[in-house]
């Protein structure tokens, strides 16, 4: 059997070509983004959040009603073509109030979550990493704050600072960050003795670098989960604060206050509870799946 | 270890003193007093009452008296409930809240862990999504709404459980479920995410490579190391749940301790405020100490004692 | 996009319809109680179950100062008088009452009766109980209810001797009471809980006798307390030693403490309670319409008023025309029909119609927006404004409560729509709120007042002095003061009544308070439960109650 030479073709002899990476180089964040985009559920969550925010901005203008004018003769109407979500006990349009309330609740939820995140991570991180006396001091301070009756704190804040958005956010975050700090501290305590942290230390990395590059990224999972709990608790703390006079002044509405007001009417006018409650749940759902997606995307070990 | 615990107990007393002091002054600064009422008392009667309860003394004398009483575990009489001392209120209310709280914690931990582990093992499959939806419902529906829902559907509509009150085991089911729903959901989420984290660690891969079964890996390696954030969360949660919840007790008419935390403040019932705060704080500080001790057991690398050698 | 949106909405609609449907058929299964009564009419269980909301703060007659404690005490103790079925005081522990010519000396003859432990009820028990309450060492916060007795105020507040108090037990059977002034409502007062006796033998031996149910908790009323489980329930049983035991048909009363109106109504629907709502409990506002539609709601007016007080020491409410404008611009009937839904009466006067029948109509028409605008214009001119929009926003304060908040929002809307002024709401925690209102740190503030006894002075006296404890408005008027002072010593009831009416007219002309509505009690009760008597003051009595 004869095999002629021309049946063969030379493939890739150049070393430079053999070493070429055909996949374009990706920065860390671009990589994260690509992985996130592949996660259908997370993308759905993102879109859902977008829709909720869109409705919070434009929803109140979609009807002819405003959030405050009473119409007592049309009180407690069930959902209809006239009032899409029905009306409340003062005859106000629940659809308009729901989206008016979305502005406040989404803002409050996000603001409280971010502030708790910031203080909590910093406090817990430093406390856990420094350890010893610093840890004792910082954590016992948190305990004391947590032990003093919250309602008393709130009443005092209201008396001293008066009503207002600032007071409300202060009241919400004054103890809100503590859970986050405890969780972060626990993680950092466990992580700081791991080999890679020791290695980084040996290599001369300073505290802030170790925190930023090693400890916090590796605590991301519980941090994200804790954040998703912070949001609903902020939404309902706002309702509680508004109820005792520190938060919103009626007739302004939020999802929390609407749910609060609607709860006793569950047996008779369920839509007054149903709509705010379902949107709170949807928001939390969206934050959760986005959080999960982010977590998966951020974790390089899960890369396939 | 014993030395560390001793030191922590000392810190506990210090923290307790700070809490007592802060609460004492906060409640005195807050407007109103125990005799504030819609129908105002003649000033002479009010002066008389103040003298009887020692409220006319200078603040440092009252504060000193109070610290002494706390040290002796005698919180004095309630201003509002004339027939009970604060110690009576705590002794009668706490057992009720404790039973209910324990039930709730068991439900929350057991179901939370199971849900979380299943979700992590079946990551991004339908089991995971189902667990997620249950957890989201639990997190976004706070206990007072959950309580009303459970009461309405299970007690009123279906008649499976009694509507309210605290008499038999059946009476405790709905309030315990309502109390447990949010912690359960949160524990499920925490467990899931830490499990996922741990499962991708090298030692788990090694275990897999060694041919250990999924079950053994989960129980022996993964759960233990995933427990850390759950344990952290359990500290304050235990203290909060065991001492009772105001809304749950109100909705279900349960004679527990929880309602005193709120009503004592609205009544400005000074002695009750202090009594329940001290009681709660002790449980809180103790459970936080237990959490720190548990850290060392779960993850031997954690050395809180701060000592160079550790035990 | 549009189509999807509508699909989404119809989905929500369907879901909410489903929920609404679930909420619809509530009264279908109103349970267990029926089986008891089917057993035959003769032996129906005579066991009443009611809700009293909260733990009674004290079951010592001298220390009680709230309606929950009053509810229990009224069943367990018998005063000299008791408010009868017809709402008039009738002899109870006293079998005979003589009043002197000048209406200042009352002589009570005590009936042969026993305490629940067998001790005789004597005049000394009354003397001891009243003096106990007046004794400044005993911290009775309601002792001022006894101040109509001669020397009582002095002994209670100013260090006078208890021996000088005008109450003397002449012997075991005779109690002589001397009053400071003729007091036409004194026999109503003797039915009030501060005037109840206690077993002086027991009280001497055990000062803490009222702390728990037990052998030492002796009483002389229709029922005795056999169980007091704090914050949970109280059980009363028929007192076999009661002098009028034949009248009492109930064997026991279980009083549970549930402080949630929805739970209370649910338990009633489930057959776990025989009564839901006032006066011992409360009904959820959102249930009113449904209960009315079902025809089960019972309504009874009581002597009490819900009003908005004006601070007359700050602008703009210092201006009488502004106050009148705000008062006239309210549509009370609309508020009642749509928000309160308890058939309350619109209040255009300050004294309840049960005392002044003229106040069914009041001093001005309800919802008189035209007049309100005229007053507003006049007021604005006096204050130097030309247009309502220039008036700085008025702050309307109320204390934390769902009901107050609803009313405030409705009234805010009425003022905004009818007068074109700006109104902001201010919600405060109860104790903080009282502190603010009592120290005149507000503009307009909500306040309620319930009568302790059936007399107009109850609703007028608090506005006598600007710095009086419950005035809260900073308003006073010499002519008003004179009328009230004179009425106190006036022995002729007709003349006295006229003086009080004149005083009310002066008050309404200055309008330091905007009356809104007169209270009603609303409740639902078991169909077979009869003869629970709720008085005009809103007090429940179970002495005559029975199940058929």
Automatic annotation (TrEMBL), chain A:
<feature type="transmembrane region" description="Helical">
    <location>
        <begin position="104"/>
        <end position="129"/>
    </location>
</feature>
<feature type="domain" description="ABC transmembrane type-1">
    <location>
        <begin position="102"/>
        <end position="291"/>
    </location>
</feature>
<protein>
    <submittedName>
        <fullName>Oligopeptide transport system permease protein</fullName>
    </submittedName>
</protein>
<feature type="transmembrane region" description="Helical">
    <location>
        <begin position="273"/>
        <end position="294"/>
    </location>
</feature>
<dbReference type="Pfam" id="PF12911">
    <property type="entry name" value="OppC_N"/>
</dbReference>
<dbReference type="InterPro" id="IPR035906">
    <property type="entry name" value="MetI-like_sf"/>
</dbReference>
<keyword id="KW-1133">Transmembrane helix</keyword>
<dbReference type="Pfam" id="PF00528">
    <property type="entry name" value="BPD_transp_1"/>
</dbReference>
<keyword id="KW-1003">Cell membrane</keyword>
<feature type="transmembrane region" description="Helical">
    <location>
        <begin position="41"/>
        <end position="62"/>
    </location>
</feature>
<feature type="transmembrane region" description="Helical">
    <location>
        <begin position="223"/>
        <end position="248"/>
    </location>
</feature>
<dbReference type="InterPro" id="IPR025966">
    <property type="entry name" value="OppC_N"/>
</dbReference>
<keyword id="KW-0812">Transmembrane</keyword>
<feature type="transmembrane region" description="Helical">
    <location>
        <begin position="141"/>
        <end position="161"/>
    </location>
</feature>
<comment type="similarity">
    <text>Belongs to the binding-protein-dependent transport system permease family.</text>
</comment>
UniProtKB/TrEMBL annotation, chain B:
<keyword id="KW-0812">Transmembrane</keyword>
<feature type="transmembrane region" description="Helical">
    <location>
        <begin position="98"/>
        <end position="121"/>
    </location>
</feature>
<keyword id="KW-1003">Cell membrane</keyword>
<feature type="domain" description="ABC transmembrane type-1">
    <location>
        <begin position="94"/>
        <end position="295"/>
    </location>
</feature>
<keyword id="KW-1133">Transmembrane helix</keyword>
<dbReference type="InterPro" id="IPR000515">
    <property type="entry name" value="MetI-like"/>
</dbReference>
<keyword id="KW-0813">Transport</keyword>
<feature type="transmembrane region" description="Helical">
    <location>
        <begin position="230"/>
        <end position="252"/>
    </location>
</feature>
<dbReference type="InterPro" id="IPR035906">
    <property type="entry name" value="MetI-like_sf"/>
</dbReference>
<keyword id="KW-0472">Membrane</keyword>
<dbReference type="Pfam" id="PF00528">
    <property type="entry name" value="BPD_transp_1"/>
</dbReference>
<feature type="transmembrane region" description="Helical">
    <location>
        <begin position="133"/>
        <end position="156"/>
    </location>
</feature>
<comment type="similarity">
    <text>Belongs to the binding-protein-dependent transport system permease family.</text>
</comment>
<feature type="transmembrane region" description="Helical">
    <location>
        <begin position="168"/>
        <end position="190"/>
    </location>
</feature>
<feature type="transmembrane region" description="Helical">
    <location>
        <begin position="272"/>
        <end position="298"/>
    </location>
</feature>
UniProtKB/TrEMBL annotation, chain C:
<dbReference type="InterPro" id="IPR000914">
    <property type="entry name" value="SBP_5_dom"/>
</dbReference>
<dbReference type="Pfam" id="PF00496">
    <property type="entry name" value="SBP_bac_5"/>
</dbReference>
<dbReference type="InterPro" id="IPR030678">
    <property type="entry name" value="Peptide/Ni-bd"/>
</dbReference>
<dbReference type="InterPro" id="IPR039424">
    <property type="entry name" value="SBP_5"/>
</dbReference>
<feature type="domain" description="Solute-binding protein family 5">
    <location>
        <begin position="89"/>
        <end position="470"/>
    </location>
</feature>
<feature type="signal peptide">
    <location>
        <begin position="1"/>
        <end position="20"/>
    </location>
</feature>
<keyword id="KW-0732">Signal</keyword>
<protein>
    <submittedName>
        <fullName>Oligopeptide transport system substrate-binding protein</fullName>
    </submittedName>
</protein>
